[in-house]
Amino acid sequence: MALNHKKSSGKWWETEYSGNIHSYLQYREAECRMEYGGRSPQIHMRPVLLKTIRNISKTWEMSNVSVHLAITLLDFFMDNHDLKFDTAMLVSFACLTLAAKIEEHSLNIPKLKSMRNVISKDVTNSHFRYVEMKILMFFNFNVAIPTVAHFIEFYKEHFYCDQDFYHPELKDILKDKFDKIILFYQDKSLESTKLISYNSSMVAASIILTTRHTLGLSPCWTVKLRKVSGYLKKDLVQCCSLLGRNVMQRRKYVQVDEGYFSSSPGYHSPIILGTKKKRSHLDVPSIILSKRIAY
């Protein structure tokens, strides 16, 4: 499922098959569901690991899709394993390389030697491949998981409606702010562990709704967006709230509990369900640096 535009000549969300691809992504989203319990003993390390992944991805000019996929793999793997700090750092790098192998050109895949300031020189390629294999086996080699970044590009194509541009000059002004705000909310969605349990398509749709609200566009959730996403406006209340924006104060939304099922087409429960896996212990004590990295 390498749908990153960097790997292909065109952008899938702009093709005539975009609707079919979106439906397939939603199917994969349901198929790849796992339970997230927030039970990792090392969850306090998550901000540092996120920063590491972002810094490496920026250095290697990787796409936002790869970053989201890497963090998704890391979150669910850590949730089911007890990792030491340095091992967690190695796992985060392995998640990023796996994501890059799916979404990037070979030239944009980080090399082990680029992490020598974090990982011991004693970590060989075979050791690193072992960690990658542990991650692949945990996910049953099913690591091509749809993320917020996959869905957001499709929803962005349907962001505007005709009444948004009541003045010709407003179009350029809105589009200039639009991409920056979308990227801001995407980053915020990665920082919240509470959003991990929600479908990626729901989080992506909530980002679009919140962005329209931030830009002062009315309605916040258009008929077109409802049709392409399969979500009603009230389905997105909790996600919008978790994004940390004041979406509900100015508008009367209907509160939705976690068991709510919408009648809208293609909708799935906002909480990702799945089989709970027993947490295991993964440690590579002899090959990891003992010192911690300061940020």
Description:
By secondary structure, the protein is mainly α. The protein has two domains: 19-139, Orthogonal Bundle (Cyclin A, domain 1); 148-243. 46% of the residues lie in helices and 2% in strands. The chain is built from ten helices and two strands, in the order H-H-H-E-H-H-H-H-H-H-H-E. It has helices at residues 18-31, 46-59, 64-78, 85-103, 125-138, 148-156, 168-191, 200-214, 223-229, 237-242; strands at 81-83, 280-282. The chain has a two-stranded parallel sheet. Helix 3 (64-78) crosses helix 4, helix 4 (85-103) packs across helix 5 and helix 7 (168-191) crosses helix 8 (200-214). The longest helix has 24 residues, at 168-191. Residues 5-9, 245-277 and 283-295 have low confidence and may be disordered.
How many structural domains in the coordinates? 2
* CATH fold-level name of the largest domain: Cyclin A, domain 1
Shape by Cα distribution: elongated
Q: Kindly, what is the distance between the CA atoms of the first and last residues, rounded to a whole number of angstroms? A: 34 Å
Q: Going by CATH, what is the homologous superfamily of the largest domain?
A: Cyclin-like
Order of strands in the sheet with most strands: 1-2
Secondary-structure element string:
HHHEHHHHHHHE
> Averaging pLDDT over every residue, what do you get?
78
Give the biggest beta sheet.
2 strands, parallel
Q: What's the total number of strands?
A: 2
Flag low-confidence runs.
5-9, 245-277, 283-295
Computed Rg: 20 Å
Q: Any guess at the CATH architecture of the largest domain?
A: Orthogonal Bundle
Structural class: mainly alpha
The helix tally amounts to 10
Beta percentage is under 5%
Helical percent range?
Answer: 40-55%
CATH class of the largest domain: Mainly Alpha
GO biological process, one term: mitotic cell cycle phase transition
GO molecular function, one term: cyclin-dependent protein serine/threonine kinase regulator activity
Domain Cyclin C-terminal: 146-272
Keywords: Cyclin
